[in-house]
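Students often ask why we bother encoding 3D structure as a string. The short answer is that it lets us treat folding as translation between two languages. Here is a chain of 305 residues written in the first language.
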Amino acid sequence: MGDSTPRVEDLGGGLYAYIQPDGSWFINNTGFLVGANGAVAVDSSSTERRTRAFVDAVAGLSGGPIHTLVNTHSHPDHVAGNGWFPGATIVAHERTRAEVLAAGPLPLDRIFEPVDWGELPPAPPFLTYTEGVTLWVDDLRCEVRHVGTPAHTTNDSILWVPDRSVLYAGDLLFQGGTPFLLSGSVAGAIEVLESVIAPLGARTIVPGHGPLCEPDLIEATLGYLRFVQDVARRGVAAGLAPLEAARETDLGEYAAWSETERIVGNLHRAYAELRGAERGAPIDLGAAFGDMIAYNGGRPLHCRA
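And here it is in the second language, the structure alphabet:
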């Protein structure tokens, strides 16, 4: 196992990525942009300890408060720590707020290995948008955009800094980890990567998990998503349940990506879409996670958060 210490990556001109190895379950990346009057943060973290360490890292470089917090989507590893940004305006898509409020307590300890979550006071976004909003860090334009369709979740947004060609991608991209579409859409993720993310031509991408990456990760991710759709089509034709199809599938080049059990959750979503479900339609999460645990040999999913 490599060094698991979070690190700040200086992207130049007051832009930073906060990278948390190893990027597996609930170990997400965040970021921040520093201006004369403080900082804009991109996402919080999954635990009190991790979020407070991130806040301290920003304080050490910003010389001012974190006045704005942007949530890229509603999953708890990106919003659970929102309450540790006192005084910050919390900005997100309107569906992100709705999903955070609707989530309630999650049975994470029955799905994942034990984690010390700490104290996580609820703090949903309270400034919301439908399509996007422009943030200004001094005179630097930062575009917060909803991607237009369910993808990783029903409510994904990106933060794009065109003058620096830097993209904070949230969980639309995982570097070294298996993409996860259970609460979004496989077809939608393909559309977003092809029509929203790739055309930006970003030189530097901060993925939601894993090391900084370049645009070639987009095509690699598209390859995996098309692979999932192909496995789903063959599984449905053969009358196999998602877990059975996953067990009969050779992951090939994708076996080297972490969290391989996500193939099962992704197949649950792809099966639903093949059977006519709308993108992001409600799905039986308990059944999907139960199948992922079964694929994992009946063991709780590995989590070092």
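Translate back mentally: The chain has one domain: 7-229. Keep this in mind for the problem set.
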